[in-house]
Amino acid sequence: MDIRYRQSFWFRWRRRLRRILGLKWNVLVVGDSHVQVFEHSCLREAFPWVAFDVVWVGGATASGLENPNSKTQASHLLREPLYSKKRYDQIFVNLGEVDVGFVIWYRAQKYQADVEVMMEMALENYQAYIREASQVAPVIVISVPLPTIADDNDWGEVANLRREVKASQRERTRLTLAFNRRMEEWCGHNEIDYLGLDDCSLGEDGLIAPKLLNEDPADHHYNPEIYALMLRDRLLPLLDD
Q1: CA angle 92–129–88, rounded 5-degree value
Q2: In the chain, where are the structural domains located?
Q3: Within 10 Å of residue 238's Cβ, how many Cβ atoms?
Q4: What's the rounded mean pLDDT across residues 153-159?
Q5: Distance, CA of 62 to CA of 218 (rounded, Å)
Q6: Are 143 and 180 in contact (CB under 8 A)?
């Protein structure tokens, strides 16, 4: 079902009324460093009536799994804005790339644990965070970005730190796709909106589409302009009532 129609009539009516009155629609965007895309001028210009408040934590993992790359208190930093004095009309959540692309595999190798068990732990803790956020405002969960680091990459801080993870890019991609499918199913069962981008993120070879790769080969984030345009096109039916 198109997630546009899972939003209630009154919810959409309130958003439309605020726009007519010239009031901003306040959206909290929380996640890891990938959500910086919401600071892109493309999205700001496409939705001038929306005030995106972007809170990101580098190397953040909502799963609670050990992330050897992160020295941040991600759990606290990602929960703090949920309880700020500012009132939010909607919350976008995009977490998981660190978990699926690195931490799950790292922990499975380090502790000789099953990857599926580690993914289940990540899903359960991520879902708990989304339930918590849903008590503050309606949530849209955005699918986890696909792995961009190729098997033979040995440049860049992220690639160097992840070098000890033996899983291939194809294995990491398959796990990310499975993670996103599980999240989409869970969101559907719990009446939480889910914005899936896997269908337009995959290339013909089953890996990340070349157009999404960053122009800086040492940067593991998506190309910000292409990613912003992709999000804009998918969000227009949801925010442009």
Answers
A1: 40
A2: 3-239
A3: 18
A4: 55
A5: 25
A6: yes
What is the C-alpha separation between 200 and 114, in angstroms, rounded?
Answer: 30
Phi, psi for residue 157 in degrees, rounded to 5: -60, -45
194 vs 209: CA distance, rounded Å:
21
In the predicted model, is pLDDT for residue 4 greater than 50? Answer: no
List beta partners, residue 56: 31
The share of the chain scoring above pLDDT 90, in percent, equals 47
H/E run at residue 56: strand 50-56
Cα–Cα dist 39/186, whole Å: 28
Residue carrying structure tokens 């005030």: 51
In angstroms, the CA 195 to CA 31 distance is: 14
Which residues have C-beta within 8 Å of that of residue 42, sequence separation ≥ 6?
A: 225, 228, 229, 232
CA atoms within 13 A of residue 92's CA, in its CB half-sphere: 28
Dihedral pair phi/psi, residue 181, rounded to 5°: -65, -45
Crossing angle between the packed helical segments 169-189 and 115-134, to the nearest 10 degrees: 40
**Structure token pair of residue 220:** 């593991």
Position with higher pLDDT, 97 vs 194: 194
Rounded CA-CA distance 77/140 in Å is: 19
Q: Residues 12-38: pLDDT tens digits?
A: 888 888 888 888 999 999 998 899 999
Overall fold of domain 3-239: Rossmann fold (3.40.50)
